[in-house]
Amino acid sequence: MRDAELLGRLSALVEIHERVALGLSTGEGRISELTSRMQQAAGEIDELRGLVGDLSEIARQAKRPEWLTTTELAADLRLNPRTVRQWYYDGKIPGYKLSEKGHIRFDRKEVAEFIRRNGRTA
Question: What is the number of other CB atoms lying within 10 angstroms of the CB of residue 35?
Answer without folding.
Answer: 10
